[in-house]
Amino acid sequence: MSKPTYPKKRNNDDDDKKMANEFKKMQTRLVVAERLKIARAVSGMKQKEVAEKAFINPTTYSGYENGVGVPPIEVMVQLADLYNVTIDYLAGRAPFTDEFLNNSYDDEDEIAFPTYFEIIERLEKLEKVVNNQDDQ
């Protein structure tokens, strides 16, 4: 019978640091991916639209949303401006708040994202207008 083989003794400190670093990178990719998906969903844009407006290859942008990679800082700035959020939000360093949905833009041509309650209020007003037109 042959002797059992055991794994080589490893340098725990170095290996643990490497594993922790890799985990942190993976975690960052996933957080950024999730935040990009949320911001895009709130904006109502398609991935292709975002890619065009941010001057990014659509496949590259898709990779960011799928956690394949993290956008470089220049791209993070473009995306944060496009979505009207902070880079800290996209990086997962700032929590999701209602302010994200309520942010109004400086440019009058831009449309602010309404909250759920604002949408309901607008729909109720629209319904009253429609009902009044039906009565006439």
In a few lines, what is going on in this structure?
The protein is mainly alpha-helical. The chain is 64% helix and 0% strand.
Amount of helix = 55-70%
SSE order: HHHHHHH
Extract low-pLDDT stretches: 104-113
Question: In total, how many beta strands?
Answer: 0
What is the strand content?
under 5%
The backbone outline, from C-alpha atoms, is elongated
Mean pLDDT: 77
Largest sheet: none
Structural class comes to: mainly alpha
**CA radius of gyration:** 23 Å
* Individual helix count: 7
Amino-to-carboxy terminus distance? 98 Å
Q: Could you characterize what this model shows?
A:
With 136 residues, the protein is an all-alpha fold. The N and C termini lie far apart (98 Å). About 7% of the residues have low confidence.
SSE blueprint and pairings:
Layout (H helix, E strand, L loop, with lengths): L11 H32 L3 H7 L4 H8 L7 H11 L3 H4 L7 H5 L13 H20 L1
Helix pairs in contact: 2-3
